[in-house]
Amino acid sequence: MKIIEKLISIKEENFILTNQRALFWKEASALILSDLHLGKTAHFRKNGIPLPSDIILEDLKRLSDLINHFNPKKIIVVGDFLHAGKNSEFEIYKNWKLQFPALKIILVKGNHDRISEKYLFELGISDIYSVYQENEFTFSHEDLKNESQFVISGHIHPGVVLQSSTRKLKFPCYVVTENQLILPAFSTFTGLDTNNYFPESQKYIVTQDSIHLIQ
Questions:
Q1: pTM of the model as a whole
Q2: Are 202 and 213 in contact (CB under 8 A)?
Q3: Residue 168 in contact with residue 202, Cβ under 8 Å?
């Protein structure tokens, strides 16, 4: 897997955008991601929709590669760590987490994280918040209005449509404004919201091999 980096500065802190849909905060040694949606494919299969079982394995392999690349002290998951309750993917994740027993995982709960917190702790989550603050940054699953600090969020699975001469292509993206950063969904098994909610923002689209800034 190729990890492409793009360094940006926010409030004099250094953040590295990656083409693997996660962000590394250098000063805090924190890997930041949103919308893993653990259990989603198993939930669909349980409801009669045939999906390959290796989607979660591929997502966790990408996460392993990012951890090995950056060697973070902690991971901050900005919501929707889970998708739809406890299912077979829990054991897959628990076995995966054994590779990183000392890695702290902070969860900011999203709208899908409705399961009992005891199950979240069983999955190796260290701390659970509705909103988490560290230094000058606020972490929330959804965008916060009238927030004085810089907000890092997820939830909307932001994307961009680019038009070629023959077709339209959709790409996940980071959205960066003066007071917020919205992460792309980490899981590859998610839709994209391509509405331009923030016309004055910078958008960093990601592909398997690159990161491109469009404005």
A1: 0.91
A2: yes
A3: no
